[in-house]
Amino acid sequence: MKSLIALLFLPLTLFVFCYFDLSPSLPMENATRASFVMEERLEGYDYIQNGEQFIIEVYSDIESFYAMRSQDIIGFNLYFQSLDINDFAKSVNGQIFKRQSVEGIEIYEGYTNCYKDFRYVGGQKINIQIAVKPNEVVVGFPLILTGF
Predict the structure, then answer these.
(1) Do 79 and 33 form a contact (C-beta atoms < 8 A)?
(2) Pair 129, 147: CB distance under 8 Å
(3) Of 7, 44, 47, 49, whose CB has the highest number of CB atoms within 10 Å?
(4) Per DSSP, what are the bridge partners of residue 50?
(5) What's the rounded mean pLDDT across residues 10-16?
(6) Which residues, including other chains, have CB under 8 Å from residue 86's CB and lie 6 or more apart?
(7) Cα–Cα dist 20/6, whole Å
(8) Strand 46-50 vs strand 33-38: parallel, antiparallel, or unpaired?
(9) Mean pLDDT for the chain overall
(10) Domain limits, the chain
């Protein structure tokens, strides 16, 4: 009987976690701004057009913007004055590893299940890219799509 209950409980648990997306949320609360890459221009927001895509700049209520528009977002960057990479990795249940240093900018890449899109880089799934500059940290999902 216990096995039958466990067998029935497991699919229900998986359904609840998948349906309601109870995975950890992306930490946006300390971001000073965000850039969202989208295929449409939005009224009332600063933007830069890049080919057929628009980079929408958001300076406040970043989490609300993301929640309302997540299905339309191709990728996005979060900007922080400082960020502890190890704490960030823990907060998103991610694995982040150092990849390279380019012109004094430390570049990290990794993967988290908090963000569903990804790219393959060097045969590995990547959906977080972090650029640590002297006075700013840029975190891109799935990559930094707007440059460092």
Answers:
(1) yes
(2) no
(3) 47
(4) 53
(5) 36
(6) none
(7) 21
(8) unpaired
(9) 83
(10) 25-141
